[in-house]
Amino acid sequence: MTTTNIRGTGRTTKQLRALKPNALFVWCNGHMTYPKLLAMHLGREDITIVQPDYIKSDKWLGLTFSEVVLDHAYHACNKWNLTFQINLDTIRRKCGDK
Length: 98
Prior knowledge:
Strands 2-1-3 form a 3-stranded parallel sheet. The chain has helices spanning about 10-20, 35-40, 50-55, 75, 80-95; strands spanning about 25, 50, 70. The N and C termini lie far apart (about 50 Å). The chain is mainly alpha-helical and about 100 residues long. Mean pLDDT is about 90; it is low at about 1-5.
């Protein structure tokens, strides 16, 4: 009998720790429990964690973030989307990210 290791490699933990205060972190899917619990465990209540649909909406208009970071697994889990990319670029320009 074989077992599957469901534990990750710590890449998301490293990403969350490295975020600037007041950053926006885009999780790879709509299942938000894990990243939010992980951020709380790391003492990172200062960051905003959202699902990809948040970027496609207009909920971020008028908000300012220090930086925008996509979860390392985002591109493996999501198809390219023009609206997402345009909005992501706009948010990044607002916070000085390239």
